[in-house]
Structure to design on (228 residues):
């Protein structure tokens, strides 16, 4: 039973345009949501996060939006650059500090076309 | 600052062999994790530890063992390798008590069991 779902295995976007990656979750106990970026042969690296008490968090070109009622979050990248081509994982943390780690989606492979 | 270091980077095992995947971190993080990533799938939690001497099972612990004798090290042991354990293994850490703080990942160990 997947608690964190990324329904688009891949996404192709032109350089300079906006990339929007989507994520849905089922567990209402999740209290933090994170986005990770992963290049081939490397470990995932943290990109941006959002607390469940917020609906938006911004860091430079990256913005994460959270819609708690719809159990949906999205990552916006504006403008998209060639170096953004990677696999993006959505992850969620449970209540109580999340000592038991993060629950990950299957990832979306973002391809930025020149 | 090395962060999370995993060794080896690659390994091929025959069915029934055993091995230990090494993980060490130099950030004095109390929380450490082992994940596996199968092709096209998200990361699944194998085991985690909240401090030296304390370990707990994650989502997919069967066929694995862990120990945590020091804050820095969190080795993962495969006793009787099976083809189903072919995967990429990631070790991660994060500080205790920092709710919502991201996990820091190593670069992974790619294991093939034939």
């Amino acid at each position: 039973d997947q608690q964190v779902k990324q329904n688009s295995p891949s996404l192709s976007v032109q350089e300079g345009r906006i990339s929007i990656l989507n994520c849905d979750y089922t567990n209402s106990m999740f209290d933090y949501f994170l986005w990770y970026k992963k290049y081939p042969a490397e470990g995932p690296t943290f990109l941006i996060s959002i607390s469940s008490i917020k609906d938006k968090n911004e860091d430079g070109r990256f913005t994460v939006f959270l819609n708690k009622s719809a159990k949906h979050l999205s990552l916006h990248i504006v403008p998209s650059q060639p170096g953004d081509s990677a696999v993006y994982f959505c992850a969620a943390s449970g209540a109580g500090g999340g000592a038991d780690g993060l629950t990950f989606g299957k990832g979306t492979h973002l391809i930025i076309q020149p | 600052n090395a962060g999370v270091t995993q060794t080896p980077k690659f390994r091929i095992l025959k069915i029934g062999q055993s091995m230990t995947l090494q993980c060490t971190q130099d950030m004095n993080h109390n929380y450490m994790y082992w994940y596996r990533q199968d092709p096209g799938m998200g990361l699944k939690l194998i085991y985690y530890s909240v401090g030296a001497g304390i370990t707990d099972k994650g989502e997919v612990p069967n066929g694995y063992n862990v120990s945590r004798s020091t804050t820095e090290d969190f080795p993962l042991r495969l006793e009787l390798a099976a083809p189903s354990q072919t995967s990429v293994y990631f070790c991660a850490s994060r500080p205790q008590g920092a709710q919502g703080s991201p996990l820091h990942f190593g670069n992974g160990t790619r294991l093939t069991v034939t």
